[in-house]
Amino acid sequence: MIALLRVDHRLIHGQVALGWVRTLGADAILVANDEIGEDQLRKSMLKMAKPAETKLVIKSISQAAAAINSGKTDSYTLLIVTETIADAVRLANLCPTIGHLNLGGTRKQADCRQVTNTVFISNQDIAQLQALAARGVEIEARTLPNDRKVDLDQLRRSLS
Amino acid sequence: MTKQLVLLASHGNLAAGMASAVEVIIGKRPQLRTAAPYTGDMDELATCVNCALTEVGPGGELIIITDLDGGSVNNTMLPFVAKGNVQLVTGMNLGLVLEVLLSAPTGRDAFAITVDRCRQGIRLVNVPGDISDEEF
């Protein structure tokens, strides 16, 4: 089952490896990203960051969607991580079984405004997330599992 | 659930620094305590432990994590091990503290397993490891 889809521009790091994996009881992490595939250095850094008992699979977004939709990931308690909101939206649109999207951290970019201490978001991101929410996907922002969830309405209000 | 407190004790500010690092990674944990920096006063340390023991109560468990094997901080803690509900481990490092807070091992056997596992977190990294890719 998919435990969570998380957007985190740092992919796997302390908070993710320890806090989130443990709280969710995840036994596998799927990093869905189109750039990492051939980047051996980045791949080995991710492998070093993962918790020992957790499987780490790195796939392009379309291959990640294929794996999820084929049922291959069903027997795992899976944490999916994407680097950007756009990537997460793309994956969620390909996979109807994704029901929850957590915004953990995004990079500050030109057209983005800060909505929580780790999340920067653009109007385009909000529009895409709203479309997801309209079909029942839960969208919230939290850095750590014990933080209070900031929902999409609150994020949108922070932007205006 | 057994009431459990985790007390960090060290020379200087290692314990306080460790608590701040823990907070960055997993947030504040109410069961975490730090003893004041040890600067020579063993009685002050012992008082701190007694406070923590009172707080966990007879049915609870106190886990004390100290900095250095053979150091004065750890030596001060040795008599407390005789009380059945104290686990004492030395060689404090962040991985161990996080693991203890997250998995809350109770009893000596569980604790020994936790310590063994965390010891593997101290490792040489610049050694080429397994570079194969995992699959589902």
Structure description:
The complex is a heterodimer of chains A (160) and B (136). Chain A has helices spanning 14-24, 40-49, 61-70, 85-94, 123-134, 152-159; strands spanning 2-8, 28-32, 55-59, 78-82, 100-105, 113-114, 120-121, 138-141, 150-151. Chain A is α/β, with parallel strands linked by helices and 160 residues long. Chain A starts with a strand and ends with a helix. The model of chain A has no long low-confidence stretch (mean pLDDT 93). With 136 residues, chain B is of the alpha/beta class. Chain B has a four-stranded parallel sheet with strand order 2-1-3-4, with helices on both faces. In chain B, strand 3, helix 3 (72-77) and strand 4 form a beta-alpha-beta unit. Chain B starts with a strand and ends in a 17-residue tail after the last helix. Classes of the chains: A alpha/beta (160), B alpha/beta (136). Chain A binds chain B through residues 14-15, 18-19, 22, 28, 40, 43-44, 47-48, 52, 55-58, 67, 72-73, 76, 144, 146-147, and chain B through 24-27, 98, 102-103, 120, 125, 129, 131, 133-136.
How are the SSEs placed, and which strands pair?
The complex is a heterodimer of chains A (160) and B (136).
Chain A: E1 2-8, H1 14-24, E2 28-32, H2 40-49, E3 55-59, H3 61-70, E4 78-82, H4 85-94, E5 100-105, E6 113-114, E7 120-121, H5 123-134, E8 138-141, E9 150-151, H6 152-159
Parallel strand pairs in A: 1-4, 1-5, 2-3, 2-4, 5-8
Antiparallel strand pairs in A: 6-7, 8-9
Chain B: E1 4-9, H1 14-26, E2 32-34, H2 42-56, E3 61-66, H3 72-77, E4 86-90, H4 94-103, H5 108-119
Parallel strand pairs in B: 1-2, 1-3, 3-4
Helix pairs in contact in B: 4-5
